[in-house]
Amino acid sequence: MGLAAWTVVVVVLTGASLAVGARVIPLHDVWAALDTPDVTNSNHVIVQTLRLPRTVLAVVVGVALGLSGALMQGVTRNPLADPGILGVNAGAALSVVCAASFFGVSTFYGSVWFAFAGAALAALAVYAIGALGRTGATPVKLALAGAALTVFMGSATTALLLAEPEIRADIRSWAVGSLAGKDMETVLQMSSFVLVGTLLALVCGSALNALALGDDLARGLGQRVAAARAVGAVAVVLLCGAATAVVGPIGFLGLVVPHVARLLTGADYRWVLPYSMVIAPAFLLLADIIGRIAVPPNELQVGIVTAAVGAPFFVWLVRQKRMVEL
């Protein structure tokens, strides 16, 4: 029932996303644009060419980031784990900007492989740095290493954007996380990678429950710890790399959504993962709608809205529930 309720929320926000913007379009016009589009009707053209791809993209990216955040927290047993905090998004973004700056790569299929490589290398670098010392890769050390590398890679990305004036303006908007300006073909191309990552993520539920008990106990229960972590890592790279290649680095979403899911379901990852998969698109759709109407006639990129709205909520969440460990 909870999953059904959140699915209804996503459907309602999807309708709102198609109707709300610089021009408010009546719902009957939205439905007509989807059912029997008329190329001579400006409202239908706006829905079909601008808002429908943007809305579908928000849903797909929300699924990707919500699942990847829950996976990272489960695999590392770190409540602070998030693709933004542990440098995965920043690594993918830096790699995509390098591809555009040095090799002239501008298509999705050209960028996504750079994004995968950047996400994987960033994750390995954060873990290697966090594992230094006698205490190993503790949650705090991983978070600090991730924050340091995120700042470094973010600075490098900004430097490349400033040094390359010929890079298109939409790349600069992409660098702060934006859903605007994408066509349906790009969304469908990205969706194939997200679908594979989603399937890999959903089969990890039982393994993550075992890992939550500790590596030794998980092995005693017959769990292949290294294999489980490897599958989770591949899923995270697919989900984060594909999402970042299209919309840029959107932080915070993967951090808070799994905690909200745990408040609703408990610690069982067989429920946390599906709940994260539906809560994150709802949050991202709402953030995008807020960004469209907050500063008319302009709009705020969704990455800015998620950070501004989500950070205080996360602080409140931690203070209320005292979630200091998983």
Strand content: under 5%
CATH class descriptor = Mainly Alpha
Question: Main β-sheet, in a few words?
Answer: none
How does the overall form come out from the CA principal axes? globular
Which fold name fills CATH's third level, the topology?
ABC transporter involved in vitamin B12 uptake, BtuC
By CATH, the superfamily comes out as ABC transporter involved in vitamin B12 uptake, BtuC
Count the beta strands.
Answer: 0
Helix content: over 70%
Order of helices and strands: HHHHHHHHHHHHHH
Question: What's this model, at a glance?
Answer:
Belongs to the binding-protein-dependent transport system permease family. FecCD subfamily. With 326 residues, this protein is mainly alpha-helical. Helices cover 75% and strands 0% of the residues.
What does this structure look like?
With 326 residues, the protein is mainly alpha-helical. The chain has a single domain, classed as ABC transporter involved in vitamin B12 uptake, BtuC, CATH 1.10.3470.10. The chain is built from 14 helices and no strands. The chain has helices spanning 2-19, 27-35, 42-76, 88-103, 108-130, 139-163, 169-174, 184-202, 205-211, 215-220, 225-247, 253-265, 269-294, 302-321. α1 packs antiparallel against α3 (42-76), α3 crosses α12 and α8 runs antiparallel to α11 (225-247). The chain starts with a helix and ends in a 5-residue tail after the last helix.
Quickly list its features.
single chain, 326 residues, mainly alpha, ABC transporter involved in vitamin B12 uptake, BtuC, 75% helix, globular
